[in-house]
Structure to design on (468 residues):
């Protein structure tokens, strides 16, 4: 066999060995609709970022937004999990590239809640771009930042915050005007989000049926990119204080955690 | 790490080079990259290229890319890319070409239920322009890769500055264009690498 035939044979063989998919994300992949109303008496439907599930995440019968049960979320001063002070429950595969999703839950800030510094009660955190070789723990750690979107409880208000710079830790900005939260009362949050890595992405948030995102002249969609890459985000709720250690144990109750395709599907 | 790099440097300086033509020498290069799209993510490469094989115009090369590290060892992701190339010239000239075939092998070891990454190997065709003038040399490879659901192109221009007969430093820019055929999804990505080469 001469050289030409050998090369031709090799090329032909190579073309038949293509066995993988293009390492990029297909848009608008279906997400998993989700109902987490705690009516089964457990938190088994969620992924945990919790120091002690028997203490930090208890199912209670009071206060309850609907049904018989709700979640009592407790964050103690020493609850340090995965590089931050947190008690969070997570839901994956619900914020995919170029998908439109509604999220809803109810929260009740305990009357004994004492801190005024920031506490993320829900966030949509970015993911490593696994398809392109990334993972959570590069060495050295060069990629660490606040999540692209979070609902933050700070100084007795809730604020919708966004972060535009995946390589900076201090460039978050407020999207909403602060909304005063009264302790010992249920609040219903609904978010309508279109996920994209450019500014066709939008977020539209209601608290107790009233929009907290600014009016843009047509509706209350705030257009701003909300993905750092096409791996999408994932949803977490609970309490997250980053490296900011609290001097107090704080409690927030949650109920009616839902993910769906319409407002009515997720509104409590 | 410093010791390893220094050792490579010493070996390169002590091994006797038979000819000044770099195409007739083996080459090892290492590089470091971290500027990725809109954020920083570390990667490293080790690339070995043989001298022209016997009296032919073929060279064989293999590149090991490690993700998520600046220290070459990754727990989660590697690419291994062997490549056989035919050169239009057996000596370095201001302008010459190469063309070759190879495999782009992705090894993904990440253990995370959120990950959809899988290991695989795809055929790769490379066409490259090369040039050499005094202390500067360059190459501009264009890679084409085929997948079961699409294809990708990558252009990897590299500019070398020769420190001496055996050593050079370089900067390389990589731009990838990924295309899924079915729903016409496209993505551009880019990286920048700094490194050095050793001819022996």
């Amino acid at each position: 066999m001469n050289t030409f035939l050998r090369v031709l044979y090799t090329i032909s063989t190579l073309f038949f060995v293509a066995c993988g998919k293009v390492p990029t994300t297909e848009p608008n992949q279906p997400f998993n609709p989700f109902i987490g109303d705690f009516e089964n008496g457990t938190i088994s439907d969620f992924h945990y970022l919790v120091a002690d599930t028997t203490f930090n995440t208890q199912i209670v019968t009071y206060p309850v937004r609907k049904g018989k049960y709700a979640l009592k979320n407790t964050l103690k001063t020493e609850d340090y999990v995965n590089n931050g002070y947190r008690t969070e429950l997570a839901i994956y595969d619900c914020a995919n590239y170029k998908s439109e999703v509604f999220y809803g839950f109810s929260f009740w800030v305990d009357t004994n809640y004492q801190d005024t510094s920031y506490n993320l009660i829900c966030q949509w955190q970015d993911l490593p771009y696994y398809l392109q070789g990334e993972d959570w723990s590069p060495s050295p750690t060069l990629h660490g930042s606040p999540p692209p979107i979070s609902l933050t409880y700070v100084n007795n208000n809730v604020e919708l915050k966004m972060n535009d710079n995946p390589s900076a830790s201090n460039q978050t900005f407020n999207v909403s005007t602060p909304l005063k939260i009264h302790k010992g009362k249920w609040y219903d949050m609904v978010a309508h989000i279109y996920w994209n890595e450019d500014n066709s992405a939008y977020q539209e948030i209601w608290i107790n049926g009233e929009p907290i995102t600014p009016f843009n002249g047509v509706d209350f969609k705030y257009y701003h990119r909300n993905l750092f890459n096409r791996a999408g985000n994932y949803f977490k709720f609970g309490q997250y204080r980053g490296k900011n250690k609290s001097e107090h144990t704080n409690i927030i109750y949650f109920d009616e955690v839902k993910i769906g395709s319409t407002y009515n599907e997720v509104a409590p | 790490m410093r010791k390893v790099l220094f050792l490579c440097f010493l070996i390169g300086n002590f091994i006797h080079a038979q000819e000044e033509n770099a195409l007739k020498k083996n080459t090892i290069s290492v590089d470091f990259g971290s500027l990725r799209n809109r954020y920083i993510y570390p990667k490293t490469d080790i690339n070995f290229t043989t001298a022209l094989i016997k009296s032919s115009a073929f060279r064989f090369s293999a590149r090991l890319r490690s993700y998520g590290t600046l220290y070459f060892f990754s727990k989660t992701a590697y690419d291994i890319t062997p490549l056989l190339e035919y050169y239009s010239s057996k000596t370095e000239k201001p302008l010459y070409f190469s063309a070759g075939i190879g495999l782009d092998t992705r090894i993904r070891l990440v253990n995370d239920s959120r990950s959809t990454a899988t290991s695989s190997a795809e055929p790769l065709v490379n066409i490259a322009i090369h040039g050499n003038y005094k202390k500067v040399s360059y190459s501009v490879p264009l890679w084409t890769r085929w997948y079961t659901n699409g294809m990708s192109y990558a252009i990897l221009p590299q500019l070398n500055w020769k420190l001496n007969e055996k050593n050079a430093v370089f900067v390389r820019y990589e731009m990838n264009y990924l295309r899924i055929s079915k729903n016409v999804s496209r993505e551009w990505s880019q990286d920048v690498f700094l490194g050095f080469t050793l001819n022996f």
Notes: Residues 8-19 of chain B have pLDDT under 50 and may be disordered. Residues 146 and 174 of chain B are 18 Å apart (CA to CA). Chain B touches chain A through 53 residues (CB under 8 Å). The radius of gyration of chain B is 17 Å.
